[in-house]
Fold each of these.
Amino acid sequence: MPVLVMKFGGTSVATLDKIKRAAKRVGREVANGYDVIVVVSAMSGETNKLVGYVNDTSPMYDAREYDAIVSSGENVTAGLMALTLQEMDVPARSWQGWQVPLKTTSAHGAARIEEIPTDNITAKFDEGMKVAVVAGFQGISPEGRITTLGRGGSDTTAVAFAAAFGAERCDIYTDVDGVYTTDPRIENKARKMEKIAFEEMLELASLGAKVLQTRSVELAMRYGVKLRVLSSFEEYDPNAGTLICAEEEIVENQPVSGIAASREEAKMTLVAVADRPGIAAAIFGPLAEAGINVDMIVQNISDNGETDMTFSCPTDQVARAKAALDAAKESGGINFSELLCDPDVAKISLVGIGMRSQSGVAAKMFEVLSKEGINLKVIATSEIKISVLVDRKYTELAVQALHDAFNLDQV
Ligand code: ADP
Ligand code: ASP
Ligand code: MG
């Protein structure tokens, strides 16, 4: 039997009625002749609530217990989905990560999938089970502890299962009907795309478009998984949603395909660090060891043998970044006169494979933002993206102005 993976996000399993609705879609695919692996998230809001419990109990928590707690929301929805399917006479059972077992590294809170043995689930399919309902977001470490894959990780569970089982397709059901030119909650003129290239989706995801977890796109690209994003609320349509596909399948060639915004960014500056070989390694080594996701880096011109070093990182990592830099200063590894932090910035990024062959995109972006009176704090570019840091209060204005200027509402 061909295998299909169907993933339902938090809003798609938020109530018993919604679980029933999702189960009906699963039942339809079973009737279409598939063995189905359903991956579920926790009910919407549930994971945030569990994270809150952890922080309120222990601010410097043991990451192993964090994972034991925050992974539990998915256990509930997996069981409920299996029961709902059974009520519809569809043979189904639930699987928690450790039961599969979905083996991961021991990096608690951000574990990476290492292996998904297929024999247990395949044996059940052979016995007549039609649906394996898998709790997303969770796995088991080599030490036998429960791990989680980072926020939004159920997307990655789904794609990894699709790769392991050679699934015909991996359908990601969510609360929007596809991938848009930008977050439709920020710009109501955002346009749904029929197709988007893996490389572009990878950039959009890593730059803040949370519709897919970055790692899920990486895996789909590496293993050639046919990946589709679609709404769990709309009527059934076999051609619905957005297909994430190889670049060659995209015909239109606009310079910019999409805009991502990430609000939870902070800008940090080390003032007056010695301008000598090895200084960048001495700063960013300890930050990497502390698990800080440093993104944009700018080094100022040198003055009197000293320079300022600026970088961006997620807002919730600022305290840890500060602690790591202060410790490095104390141990004599680096020297700086001041550590400045601007915690209220947002990163706005233009993404498009067309940028490889078309020039002038950066100049136009800067002009549009300057016309709106938005100051650029840091700029970074790569082959298919341009990112700027701006004051967070300008997020909507910047996205809307750029969306207009690059005519993203038009095909
Ligand atoms: P789920 O709970 O189903 O995993 P998420 O909340 O993680 O859903 O992701 C869906 C959300 O992603 C949408 O509601 C939308 O606001 C946001 N989003 C951000 N950028 C985009 C984009 N370019 N296209 C579609 N949705 C986007
Ligand atoms: N429930 C987890 C989260 O909210 C995983 C997911 O939904 O993908 O991050
Ligand atoms: Mg998600």
Amino acid sequence: MLADGDDVLCVDNFFTGTRDNIAHLIGRPHFELMRHDVTFPLYVEVDEIYNLACPASPVHYQFDPVQTTKTSVHGAINMLGLAKRVKAKILQASTSEVYGDPEVHPQTESYWGHVNPIGIRSCYDEGKRCAETLFFDYHRQHKLRIKVARIFNTYGPRMHPNDGRVVSNFIVQALKGEPITIFGAGTQTRAFCYVDDLIEALVRLMRTPDEFTGPVNVGNPGEFTILALAQKVVAMTGSNSGITYLPLPGDDPAQRKPDISLARSALGWVPHTDLEAGLLKTIAYFRDPGLRAA
Ligand code: UDP
Ligand code: UDP
């Protein structure tokens, strides 16, 4: 966005992020950083809002689950209130978790999901579902221009070593020669999208005509078992790590893979980075975090 000549106001409470990730942007004349938590009102003047706020890793969003729901729900209300006042276009980073443990495979946007309202993932899943509700009600009731993306598992450089999600966990474990921690039998599946592909989709979504609101799935349909991911990471890092099997956490979805037909037609978008290419770049980053300034 900076390269396109936009002014960028970056708002973060740094609960899971770090300033190191944007160190290379600080000091640029069109970049402004603000430490702020979206659960509190925010009065600024902007044309477009990307609301990405909320920890996305189960270990982090389960650390303070009440705050996680507040971040998605109060955060959405505040950002929608802001968008309403300044007539900004607003994009919501929703999630494949709105589909819960899906009974439809692959998942299409028309599927309403299979979500436990009272489990350990509910603070994230139901928070994000309620945020979608708020977006569509502000759209219907206040004529806001909204864009809702349902983001599937995403990974890449600048993830925190302690992020807790599977790709960074396995890479960090493999590089340290520690056991790879597989939860359950490793037969559950996920489809992994490289971060640059995801960003491209979000920017394209923001630029769609006002009539297009989504929700639209954004992810890479290449589906892998967690065991296959572990083997790939071990092979690619040349690690001698073994595998440790740990109990499967509650409500962990058995399979997940996006149907991206809508993203193809509405955004003219498909992901270009396959798992191997994305892992190469991510492994390089974790080997040498000095690459973060790139
Ligand atoms: N809000 C904000 N920034 C603004 C405008 C509103 O943070 O520029 C917050 C404000 O705290 C409010 C919420 O957004 O509680 C929802 O605003 P809205 O106008 O939809 O509702 P109301 O103010 O009528 O409750
Ligand atoms: N997982 C695992 N080992 C880990 C971290 C995660 O086996 O160290 C599994 C987890 O149980 C889930 C999948 O990998 O089945 C993806 O987990 P992640 O936390 O990355 O995201 P999720 O899609 O579950 O939100």
Amino acid sequence: MSPMRTTPDDPSPHRFVVVASRLPVDRSEGPGGEADWRPSPGGLVSALEPVMRESGGVWIGWSGDAGPAPGLFRANDLDLVGIGLSAEQVRDYYEGFCNATLWPLYHDVIAPPEFHRRWWDAYVTVNRSFAQAAVDQAAPGATIWVHDYQLQLVPQMVREQRADVRIGFFNHIPFPGYEIFAQLPWRRQVVNGLLGADLLGFQRRGDAANFLRASRRAAGLVTRGSTVRVGDREVRAAAFPISIDAAALEQIARRDTVRKRADEIRLALDEPHTVLLGIDRLDYTKGIPVRLRAYGELLREDRLGPRVVLVQVASPSRERVGAYRVLRDVVEQAVSRINGEYAEVGSAPVHYLHQSYPREEMAALYLAADVMLVTSLRDGMNLVAKEYVACRYDESGALVLSEFTGAADELTGAFLVNPHDIEGLKDAIVRAATISPADARRRMRLMRRRVCEHDVAHWARSFLGTLASGSGPA
Ligand code: GDG
């Protein structure tokens, strides 16, 4: 797909503008060295694509590489605007302020956040270029939907220039308690940046409550119920739990090829009695080390029987950030220790895959697993838990789920755990691995109903409907 550039003097006809850290396409080199854009499938794109098409929308984002701004182009039948980041901005804004300041701070300081004034300056500059692109693209009275912690200053920066637009913001990760948030030297600027929006969406009610408290404490504003008064405006902060395209994923899981592949996976694992599965970005928020610790102890205590296997997909993530390199070593040492102690020639108790897979392979893995392990120490939602449920159309399987995920509020049929409590985690894994088919069905049915009814389209409709009406969520 080649970019079709529109001329720079094009009017700005877009009534719907998505501003997200990343573009919904990946860049590769065409045969002549020109940019070639391929769709990068993801929940957000499939949720927003219909709205984008209906309302003549545009998506503003970054390609993921350092280099000049690709500007306005068309790819995959969507209008896109690529923001350019220099190598220094990638280092200071993306790897620095986003991934080494905000990410650990917003995940309850599981890793220590670093505060550097140079990184903050880069954050302000990059947020300004996203905001300017939104201002340039928005038609009079347009709706602008800004996403995530990388762009928290954009709502205010847009509002300063455009009083005519409606601005929504959705935070995909947790919003921390005030005692933690207060560490941020730029806490007031961040709160004020967000308060440029008309509606602020969070994953859980607790996140919205934390934000309201931060508005009082860091910005000295008055809140009433779920609203903050900002001059003559009222800003609402509420929970809109994100979800997945459950029907599309179930369709993939039902394909003959995918079901056959699931059988092949079990065969390749030597037909174990129980397959445990973990699928995560290799991130310290996901609780992979505690999971391995619990599993290793269960093997030592022989509580899962001899024919058990853990498949752990840890897809590569943020490999240039120090804490992620350390985590990789910790995880890989733990895996080799368990395999060193319990493997036999030809079979290993942990299959560790530091790779990324196509969606079909992911669906086959979900189908092949008896027990899904989600043990995040902190997670805004955790879509993996919902994907597992969507794939289990025969209502079998069991989910062990950390109570520190947004998904725990909705997936009440899971075995909920405190991942810091290793004994509790071990008991939950044993109960999930030895569940009766009738109990599994009852729990899975409950979870499937929730995930199928509250899918990602429902999430987008509910957020945009609330933004349009200016009233609270249903
Ligand atoms: C953030 C928040 C919130 C993973 N490996 C592969 C692959 N994946 C896909 C999964 C899932 C997605 O990536 C991961 O989503 P999560 O929700 O689990 O976590 P984050 O990436 O941390 O996302 C999180 C989310 O935003 C949405 O608001 O839920 O709390 O942290 O969809 O399937 N997909 C493919 N190959 C892989 O190897 N194809």
Amino acid sequence: MGVAAKIAPSMLSSDFANLASEAHRMLKDGADWLHMDIMDGHFVPNLTLGAPVIQSLRKHTEAYLDCHLMVTNPLDYVEPLAKAGASGFTFHVEVSKDNWQELVQRIKSKGMTPGVALKPGTPIEEVFPLVEGEIHVDMVLVMTVEPGFGGQKFMPETMDKVRTLRKKYPSLDIEVDGGLGPSTIDIAASAGANCIVAGSSVFGSPEPAKVISVLRTSVEESQKK
Ligand code: DX5
Ligand code: ZN
């Protein structure tokens, strides 16, 4: 028995001017979660959206909003995002080494699901304490590109980290993000990823439902092996 497949289109690749209809389109096409990339122009050289946009979208959908915080001070975002209606709150380990316990505790106390993300160059050992602690995260997001932009090339060398995690934690939610699509899903799924973020491959396709279904089938088939 494996962990459930969650396919999460990255709304970064959607038409922001029509966010609600883009979200509805993805859900109708089979998305489990909506991946929301929050950037501060500091942790990464790009600026996207924050709590006000999450709040606006929340009025149009009850879907799980999987928020990926590419920001230097994630603690500052807990309260506003909880109020806005975020579901998952995934922060980066690179900026949370000193306060992750407080951060996880606050995220949970606000009713959100805590996750930790790591950049391609960050060793996997850095997230072990966050998974194993008494107060712990429920998901690890292994970045498969450098965070900041959609449409980049998948980095297969990050798969060692996914394999290590899956071996150590058979029932952990492991998310991959960056360059995922029909041509890269099999390597990620067989390494053990079950939560799949996909931006350009889904939004760039004339048939997003088909892409979502290919991603899901790959995760499900890998788990039977
Ligand atoms: C990149 C973001 C990703 C991005 C993925 O920093 O975290 O979620 O939108 O986009 P694709 O699937 O196009 O690589
Ligand atoms: Zn992301």
